[in-house]
Design brief:
The complex is a heterodimer of chains A (113) and B (112). With 113 residues, chain A is mainly β. Chain A has strands at 4-7, 10-13, 19-25, 31-38, 42-49, 56-57, 64-66, 76-78, 87-94, 103-104, 108-112. With 112 residues, chain B is an all-beta fold. Chain B has strands at residues 4-5, 10-14, 19-25, 32-38, 45-51, 56-59, 62-67, 72-77, 86-93, 100-102, 106-111. The chains are: A mainly beta (113), B mainly beta (112). The interface between A and B is medium-sized, with 28 and 28 residues.
Amino acid sequence: IAGITQAPTSQILAAGRRMTLRCTQDMRHNAMYWYRQDLGLGLRLIHYSNTAGTTGKGEVPDGYSVSRANTDDFPLTLASAVPSQTSVYFCASSEGGGDSPLHFGNGTRLTVT
Amino acid sequence: DQQVKQNSPSLSVQEGRISILNCDYTNSMFDYFLWYKKYPAEGPTFLISISSIKDKNEDGRFTVFLNKSAKHLSLHIVPSQPGDSAVYFCAAPSSGTYKYIFGTGTRLKVLA
């Protein structure tokens, strides 16, 4: 079934450690996104990529980095995790343009202790 | 600055009745709006969208209304079913960019 695969499903991480959340899509979508979901704050955009080779900052980019080496993969890296990065992280993709819906993965639940 | 606002964190509705979820926005340049539904432990799934050239879009039990002058949109679910119980997010792509801005969500509970 076509879609977005995120890994791991959940992770407990010690503060200060480095972590990469993986995201792969098989829909050949141009655009990809990383959101975090926090209670009372909804979904907030961390980083996005319009197409392979380009990335951009969202609403809450600090402490996170991304790369888009190819169309299918869009990993999110926490260089040195802090407790405030405890959240559920969702990867999404879209065909691109301003009128195509986002398709989401099932999320990664990250706890930073 | 919250550009997309959902002021009701939760809503309870009896099965078979109408559910109305509201969303307000501040950016008059938004020209496309989406609604997503999210179940626990799953990613959000796309439900319905509306372009700013329309004031209504219908898909089965789901209808979205757009009032551009009031910068307000609403999602109507008729009739509501227990399986509709979920968190609903409205969203809009920031004009000229690929950034989709989401509201904070409304948790709908449909009572059997």
